[in-house]
Specification:
single chain, about 325 residues, alpha+beta, two-stranded antiparallel ribbon, 11 helices
């Protein structure tokens, strides 16, 4: 199916569930972008969940954003339990605007929800020749080091910067061995997850996605990954005024209230300290790509290259939509 046709369907679904024209457009574009870059756990597989939460009044389809200017560089946003896509779109645009004016833009968001891929927002800043760092917290999935109880989210770290060519440097990675969306996707499609990425609720290694969802996901690099998850929970939750310390609600399983997710966007001009940043970054990339390669590796790629290639490939062909997702689209539109 052509991605534009699917995007139109998603747009109409969000309109049907009460979002205005602009907000529906923002959400549909973000979801289809996830499909086009191959991040299926953050794409159409979550559409039904968003609609369910809107129906249960846990996502506010008509939010009244409170945007507080703290300084020309700093802004605090209360998203009024908006869908995360819209809150993040407003936040990254405000962060870019602040950075263009003063050199640096810091925007904190509270009372938001899941916003999809951090890299999607980072790309907006990089296109304006800005460097950005983006953080968001998430529902409990990863245990603090030494604990069997999940408390931190998979809390992605995102960094983006211009490279002087068409493909930006975008590092967008969760602090867990795999992101939670992939486990959800595996559960929906009755697939196993890789070994070594999760434990069941009793602390035993598992490849069963359902057992993993009710157990503990393993962080990258042991205690270091756990520490990064904690750091992001502080920046996105404690610092912004959002939920933190295991209080962010799971959008699929917890209908006791809004998620209360927090985001932090830091954006700044790439030429703050040097006028030839692009020249330097080009040289940096060229140096690394010339390094000797291990057997089987044709090219040393920087973060963002693979995703760009998937996007460029997928945008030219029809998207393959699983039967269960097609059924969701049909049901939600009817």
């Amino acid at each position: 199916m052509n991605y534009q046709i699917i995007e139109k369907k998603v747009f109409l679904i969000f309109k049907k569930f009460g979002l205005n024209h602009n907000h529906s457009k923002i959400c549909s574009k973000a979801i289809i972008n996830a499909e086009l870059v191959g991040a299926y756990g953050h794409g159409l597989s979550r559409l039904k969940m968003y609609c369910t939460r809107i129906s249960k009044k846990l996502i506010n389809p008509k939010p009244k954003f409170k945007i507080k200017k703290i300084s020309p560089s700093i802004t605090h946003i209360d998203a009024d339990n908006s869908i995360g896509f819209v809150a993040a779109d407003i936040a990254i645009k405000k962060s870019i605007q602040n950075a263009k004016k003063t050199g640096i833009g810091l925007v904190a968001v509270k009372n938001s929800g899941h916003y999809g891929l951090s890299g999607y927002y980072a790309e907006q800043a990089v296109k304006k020749n800005l460097i950005t760092m983006i953080f968001t917290n998430a529902p409990p999935a990863v245990a603090p080091h030494g604990s069997l109880k999940a408390l931190f989210g998979t809390n992605p770290i995102c960094f983006g910067c211009p490279t002087g060519n068409k493909i930006p440097f975008i590092l967008d990675t969760s602090i867990s061995m795999i992101n939670r969306g992939k486990i959800r996707f595996a559960e929906i499609n009755k697939l196993n997850i890789p070994k070594g990425v999760a434990l069941d609720k009793f602390g035993n290694p598992t490849i069963n996605p359902r057992k993993a969802l009710y157990g503990v996901q393993l962080p990258i690099a042991g205690f270091r990954g756990s520490g990064l998850a904690w750091m992001i929970d502080i920046l996105s939750g404690v610092f912004t005024g959002a939920n933190y310390g295991g209080k962010v609600k799971d959008p699929f399983d917890d209908f006791s209230g809004p998620q209360g997710v927090g985001h932090l966007f830091l954006t700044f001009k790439s030429n703050l300290f040097v006028n030839n940043f692009k020249k330097k970054i080009k040289k940096n990339i060229k140096t690394i790509k010339k390094l000797p390669k291990i057997k089987g590796v044709k090219d040393i790629m920087y973060p963002g290259e693979n995703k760009f290639k998937r996007f460029r490939l997928n945008i030219k062909k029809k998207l393959v939509i699983p039967k269960n997702i097609k059924k969701d689209l049909s049901t939600l539109l009817s």
